[in-house]
Amino acid sequence: NMVGLAKDSGRGAIATLLESKDLTIVDNKLYSSDISQIKKSAEYYKKMEIRRESRRERSR
Question: 34: which of 8, 23, 57, 60 lies 20 to 30 Å off by Cα?
Answer without folding.
Answer: 8
